[in-house]
Structure prediction request, 140 residues.
Amino acid sequence: MKQFIVLAAALPLLLLFMVQFAADQQYSLAVAAVDDAVYAAKEMAKQEGCFTEKITQWLKEEIASKIRGVEPSDIIIGSATDTSPVYRMGSDPEGDGLIHYQVSVPMRGFSAGSRLLGLRDTARTRYYVTDTYVPSELLP
Prediction:
């Protein structure tokens, strides 16, 4: 009887580890989808010289369509993202020719035991952030 009581207490915690593996796989797929969309938007921005409103809107819609539970309004395009044209390196003596961009995407629901452990929704939301530079191909 003692072993049954211990099993009844330990089994839910052990099952939590099994379910977390599936949640980790879903998280990896979501990160890959974000990376693919950001890469495509980055390539468009290289041609335009900056992240235009059209590219930004396309990026938000693309990410929202690939990740369940994320709306375009949830995605944050950082304030450091270049929205005015940056010219190719060497074309502008004052510029470095690099387009800076920041994209933050909320990742919710990728923790299998958060409700079991009593965590609130706000505590379970994490942001996947891409913050980097790309050389511009725009000529003046």
